[in-house]
Amino acid sequence: MNKTKMIVTVGPKSNSEDIIRKMIISGADVIRINMSYASFEEAKDIILKVRKINLDLNIQTGIMIDTLGPEIRIGNLEKPFIKLEKGKLIRIVYNNIVGNEEMISVNSKEVIERCEENDEIFLNSGEVKIIVDKKTDDTLICKIDNDGKIKPNTTVNLKNITLNTTFLSEYDKKCIEFASKFEADFLALSHVRDNLDVLDVNDLLINLNNSNMQIISKIENKSAIDEIENILKVSDGIMVSRGDLGLEFELEKLPSVQKRIATLTKNKGKICIIATEMLASMEKNIRPTRAEVSDVANSVLDKTDAVMLSAETAIGDYPVETVLTMNKIIDEIENEIDYNDILKKIDRKEEIDISKAISYSAVDSANRVSAKAIVCSTLSGLTAKDISNYIPSCPVIATSPIDKVVRGLTINYGIIPFLVSNCDTTEELIKSSIITAKKVLKLEKGDKIVIAGSFPMTINYTNFIKIEEIK
Question: Quick check: pTM over 0.85?
Fold first, then answer.
């Protein structure tokens, strides 16, 4: 079982119970639904399919809802796609028109107001660059900088311009209410600019009486990079969304930006996800490129919690094969990691609480005795996450009697979440931990496991570890 988790997007090419089941069996830990494209009925259908598969297979698969965010998008077009030719002119207007090769509309009047001559605009996730040639009160006349095609409702990116749009649109509020109603485990917020955007969502979740759904802030613009420390304080995790970031920075700077964000996020003990074009060529091909394999490998070596597949599985021709390929790459690279060296490099100068001290000791003990697993009993998931953040060499089996807590751990590095009955005594907890470890892993006589729990059970934090040898 791989420690680096995999988030898999379900879309038109993968929205069948059979394909979703195969992707989960092949290594998908979290199923993502992108509300930029999915309807509420489609999202509900996917969630119900995943929950049914979980019951059938007696496993836990997380659900992530991805919001639209304050995105700028192209309006409708006359055709499924429009070819644009380098050197020709195209007009951008705010009016709700059906676009063509000569004129397109956008959903924000501020684009017309804020752009000036020579500003660069990227269409269709950066496939086509156009440059503002002239400007009138209600129109931008732009020169097409390269051949390419655009599709209806695809994204528009402005280089070095941040619009003053409201972060939470009415549609996104409905998406968050939907996610709460259907008990999604993770909420990915698109185009976060600062901590105030996240706090707005926190307030909405409080009003919905939802304290379980974890907020993942997507880092997609320079504003978010500048505010990353504050965003981390109010988020459960960060997603490095390299598609839009690649339009904000020179491409050669993107790897160092990614690594800097990943390092900072893990040092803060938060979830880190790397996303966008991990295996993009597999949308149309059965095999990835060598560069893509290296890209996935580097994300694994950075000890990120999860990597994500987007269009590859949503609209690609080989969704199941792509998941299998990603799984194989992760497995191979994780075998090369020196976990003892990682633990030595973790800075322990700061004062830590009892739970974190126990977590560090559990990982150190597991590494030293070559334990097959760390079994952690948890009611909130916090101790399991602390253990995960110390990057143990063995899997972390996180046991809890609370279904929402178990599903909420599906995204954390190295954690295998498992739903168990409540234990009344520490002795019961130890016995249950051994039984669960045997169920989850193929343990043999003489194998060792490290158990982390509470003594007595009335204590509401983890305060002991015990090493058990399988009889």
Answer: yes
pLDDT recorded at residue 90: 96
> Could you tell me the end-to-end alpha-carbon distance of the chain, in angstroms, rounded to an integer?
23
Is the bond preceding residue 456 a cis peptide, omega within 30 degrees? yes
CB 188 within 8 A of CB 209: no
Measured distance CA(323)–CA(26) in Å, rounded: 6
What is the DSSP code string of 175-235? HHHHHHHTT-SEEEETT--SHHHHHHHHHHHHHTT--SPEEEEEE-SHHHHHTHHHHHHH-
User: Which residues fall within 8 angstroms of residue 344, CB to CB, at 6 or more apart?
Assistant: none
Instruction: Please state, in angstroms and rounded to a whole number, the distance separating the CA atoms of residues 293 and 286.
Output: 13
**Residue 4 has what DSSP assignment?**
S
What topology is assigned to 72-158 in CATH? M1 Pyruvate Kinase; Domain 3 (2.40.33)
Residue 471: half-sphere exposure toward Cβ, Cα within 13 Å: 3
pLDDT band at 349 (very low <50, low <70, confident <90, very high): low
Q: What is the pLDDT of residues 90-114, one digit of tens each?
A: 999 998 899 999 999 998 899 999 9
| C-alpha distances in Å from residue 440, one per residue of 57, 390, 414 | 13, 22, 13
Locus of tokens 């609480």 = 353
pLDDT given at position 126: 85
Q: Does domain 340-469 have CATH number 3.20.20.80?
A: no
| 3-state secondary structure at position 266 | helix
In percent, how much of the chain has pLDDT > 90?
Answer: 78
Q: Is CATH 3.30.230.10 what the domain over 5-69+167-334 is classified as, yes or no?
A: no
- What are the residue ranges of helices labelled H in 268-338? 290-301, 311-314, 319-334
What residues pair up with 62 in beta bridges, in sequence order? 30
Residue with structure tokens 């109010």? 234
Quote the percentage of the chain above a pLDDT of 70.
Answer: 99
pLDDT digits (tens, 9 = 90+) for 32-76: 999 999 999 999 999 999 999 999 999 999 999 999 998 888 999
The per-residue pLDDT for range 181-207, each reduced to its tens digit, is 999 999 999 999 999 999 999 999 999
**Contacts with 373 (C-beta within 8 Å, 6 or more apart), sequence order:** 366, 394, 395, 396, 397, 437, 440, 441, 449, 450
* Helix locations, 58-121, DSSP H: 109-114
Phi-psi region of 298 (alpha: psi -120 to 50; beta: other; left: phi over 0): alpha
Query: Domains of the chain: which residue ranges?
Result: 5-69+167-334, 72-158, 340-469
> How many CB atoms within 10 Å of residue 1?
12
